[in-house]
Write a structure and sequence with these properties.
This protein is of the alpha+beta class. It has one domain (about 5-165): Gcn5-related N-acetyltransferase (GNAT) (Aminopeptidase). Helix content is about 25%, strand content about 35%. It has four helices and eight strands; from the N terminus they run ββααβββαβαββ. The radius of gyration is 15 Å and the shape is globular. The protein starts with a strand and ends with a strand.
Length: about 170
């Protein structure tokens, strides 16, 4: 596991095969993924993890495993989907239910902004969340994203507030 970034409470790692069981608690849980077109079946998690690992190798940016230093457990994932190039990336974050409400999403999302800043190629970070996902919307506003409007998303079959972060 390659350490990508470290905060006072969290370590962000490149995803690898050792994260499959932990990923079941966030990407594989229906309640966690209710606003994101539902949970991923456990049999596709290895392919998702492999795709993000390859993304890191190719682009130097990806979605990362997030480890809580206190519990020494992987509690979620945070990082970037590459839109067309590393100039424009999408911030995402998902956490196991037991880690909700502790500020981990805000801390990891802030770390992701620094990762993108240090990368040097990122010009714009986009993000969106379901209108019902008040916690995620609050995180985006707290870390400096600007609301730019509402957009329809085919994958989730809903309109979502959209945000941007410019360097």
């Amino acid at each position: 596991m390659e350490i990508i970034y470290e905060t006072s409470r969290l370590i962000l790692y490149t995803l690898d095969d050792s994260h499959q069981d932990a990923a079941k608690e966030f990407w594989g849980e229906e309640e966690v993924m209710v606003f994101c077109d539902g949970a991923s079946s456990h049999d596709v998690l290895p392919r998702i993890i492999d795709a993000y690992r390859k993304c890191q190798e190719t682009h130097g940016l990806s979605v990362y495993a997030v480890k809580d230093k206190a519990s020494n457990e992987i509690i979620g994932a945070a990082g970037f989907n590459i839109i067309d190039s590393v100039n424009k990336v999408e911030l995402i974050y998902h956490y196991s239910k037991k880690s909700w409400g502790k500020g981990f999403a805000t801390e990891a999302a802030s770390a992701c902004i620094e990762i993108a800043r240090n990368h040097g190629g990122v010009q714009v970070i986009t993000a969106s969340a379901s209108l019902e996902n008040k916690g995620s919307l609050k995180v985006l506003e707290k870390i400096g994203f600007t609301f730019i409007g509402v957009k329809w998303f085919d994958d989730t079959q809903q309109e979502e507030p959209c945000y941007k972060y410019h360097f």
